[in-house]
Amino acid sequence: MKLIVAVIKPHRLDEVKEALQAFGVQGLTVTEASGYGRQRGHTEVYRGAEYTVDLVPKLRVEILVEDDDADQLVEVVVKAARTGKIGDGKVWTLPVDTAVRVRTGERGPDAL
Amino acid sequence: MSPEEALSATNVAYVVICAAMVMLMTPGLAFFYGGMVRVKSALNMLMMSFISLGIVSLLWVLYGYSLAFGGTSPVIGNLDFIGLRDISVDQGELVAFVAFQLMFAVLTPALMSGALADRVKFGTWALFVALWVTVVYFPVAHWVWAADEGWLFNQGVIDFAGGTAVHINAGAGALAAVLVVGKRVGFKRDPMRPHNLPMVLLGAALLWFGWFGFNAGSALTTGSGSPAAMMALNTQVATGAAVVGWLVYERLRHGAFTTLGAASGAIAGLVAITPSGANVNPMGAILIGLVAGALCAWAVSWKFKLGFDDSLDVVGVHLVGGVVGTLLVGFLATEGAGLEQFGKQALGAVAVMAYSFAVTYLIAQLLQRTVGFRASEEDETAGLDLAYHAETGYDFSQAGSGTVAGSTVTAPADRAAGQKKVDA
């Protein structure tokens, strides 16, 4: 199994979700995150004092998938999250040893 | 009821209602300032204003009113009305005046709290409020408002509702206190963004509303010829103009119309029209508002250049705005405008500024060297809310869950059983 981790722009979540559902993915986890890449942050002004805010809000989406689906699903996520502008985020995968469905105790791909 | 009695009854009702409106300004100020600080000391900022409602209300009836409005000396009142003795229930207009002026005495020291955000000991601040109103506010209020007695009153200085006695006084005092207490840890290095701008705007709105009581209420009378209505109108006009003035300056200089700028502009306009609004026409009020808005928008940048951490710009808004209104009315007054009146206005502004700065500096030094004014760096960095109030302003746990990972909230009943110290 693999864990796909995607850090995306918050407003792209619906597109990513729909694309994954269309592919048949059963579940995902979304966390609010903040960070920066090449985009860096933005500038805010308070009574003339300008602050550079490095960290911009992002969503971290995690999806557990079977090995065979991983490459294709990465493409699905990338396509759905892309706006073409700087700050679109990143997607990467990690190998996963074990997964257990808490309710039934099923293990491995059966737990997905 | 004779016409005189009817007018008296109307005046009492008017002044009592205005007093209640001015009371609301202090919590309004608490929200205005509270939203501008970082989360970790937000409650402390609210409390620095709120405590004044407690302390000064007591001092005012114990001896404050007497020191401000008793006797015939030009510099300070006396103790004839200590504990408000010899003032009885049938002196309705006088009692209403005492209550109305009480609210001014509560608000003025609270104004200074913004300059000292995030870094002073709460107990010392409470002591500072008590000392400051006693040796700075009560005498200065006497100078300006004790009719036919105070020396600035007799000089003919126009200060209808408190440009000198309230705003220049608090602004100069704030500067002195800042110089004693020093900068916040991380000033000019760490970002110190307002944590809740909607709260700032709400506070500004409460202040704006209450300010009608503050300004128009200072007329104290409602009969024909009362300046109350013109003052109310000019309060609105100048404040609107100052919002525009601040935002235009900001858009040109910094590229955005900020919410904080709109709220700050409103306060700058309210401050500037406070001394002047009963003596100018609405065209004069527009000019005063525009100048105050734009000038204060520039003045709030001085602290970065000069390196004093007037955290929430009490100097830039209240001192500068107060000076703008106090000086401009010398030229814009509908009667007696000119260099001579301008000279009187400048005298009033400078006298209050010098006295407040010098005496506040001494009080702050005295407190710093005895009980300590500045909070410990550890408390300041961790946040004053926990250090002095044993609370946090916001529960950041997931909405609706009621349990927080890693923290256990013990119900009061359980605690009483488990801990002998708790006196439940």
UniProtKB/TrEMBL annotation, chain A:
Protein name, UniProt field: Nitrogen regulatory protein P-II
Gene Ontology, cellular component aspect: cytosol
tRNA processing found in the keyword field: no
Lineage: Bacteria, Bacillati, Actinomycetota, Actinomycetes, Kitasatosporales
Subunit structure: Homotrimer.
Tagged with keyword Glycosyltransferase: no
Modified residues (O-UMP-tyrosine): 51
UniProt keyword annotations, A-Z: Nucleotide-binding, Phosphoprotein, Transcription, Transcription regulation
Highest taxon listed in the record's lineage: Bacteria
Molecular function in Gene Ontology: ATP binding; enzyme regulator activity
UniProtKB/TrEMBL annotation, chain B:
Chief subcellular location: membrane
Gene Ontology MF terms in the entry: ammonium channel activity
InterPro entries: Ammonium/urea_transptr, Ammonium_transpt, Ammonium_transpt_CS, NH4_transpt_AmtB-like_dom
Membrane topology, as annotated: Multi-pass membrane protein
Record domain Ammonium transporter AmtB-like: where: 14-394
Residue ranges of the TM segments: 12-33, 45-65, 94-112, 124-145, 165-185, 197-216, 228-249, 256-274, 280-300, 312-333, 345-364
Assigned keywords, A-Z: Ammonia transport, Membrane, Transmembrane, Transmembrane helix, Transport
Keyword Protease appears in the UniProt entry: no
Location in or out of the cell: Cell membrane; Membrane
GO cellular component annotations of the record: plasma membrane
Keyword Membrane among UniProt keywords: yes
Membership in a protein family: Belongs to the ammonia transporter channel (TC 1.A.11.2) family.
Full protein name: Ammonium transporter
Organism: Streptomyces zhaozhouensis
